[in-house]
Specification:
The protein contains 4 helices and no strands. The chain is mainly α.
Length: 111
């Protein structure tokens, strides 16, 4: 999200929006990782036989949550690295707020 905010301060608004979307994917992955951690803590306090259906279901749920967190992390990393690479290799032009406001007003007056 920090990269998205930095891109918003430049003329790269489309890239900033894309970075925010990628940050949202990573946030969702983090939520699944937190659910997995909570299930692991629950397993530590659980005093049941290891082969009961409830324990097997919770173990499977934790495995699925962890797998989904990894997939979301990999997808967001796969999409973020090219965006960051493009950002680093291109010249950065700071957005002039007065010029941007005048341009927006002229576009709105044409409509």
């Amino acid at each position: 999200m920090g990269v998205s905010r930095a891109l918003m301060k430049t003329a790269k608004r489309k890239s900033a929006f894309r970075a925010a979307q990628i940050g949202g994917l990573m946030f969702i992955g983090t939520l699944f990782a937190a659910i997995d951690a909570a299930l692991d803590a629950f397993f530590g306090q659980l005093d049941m036989l290891p082969k009961t259906p409830l324990v097997l279901f919770l173990f499977l749920l934790g495995w699925v949550c962890n797998s989904v967190a990894i997939v979301f992390g990999l997808i967001s990393m796969d999409r973020f690295i090219p965006l960051l690479n493009k950002f680093i290799q291109s010249p950065i032009k700071r957005l002039d707020p007065d010029k941007a406001i005048k341009k927006q007003i002229s576009l709105e007056s044409m409509r």
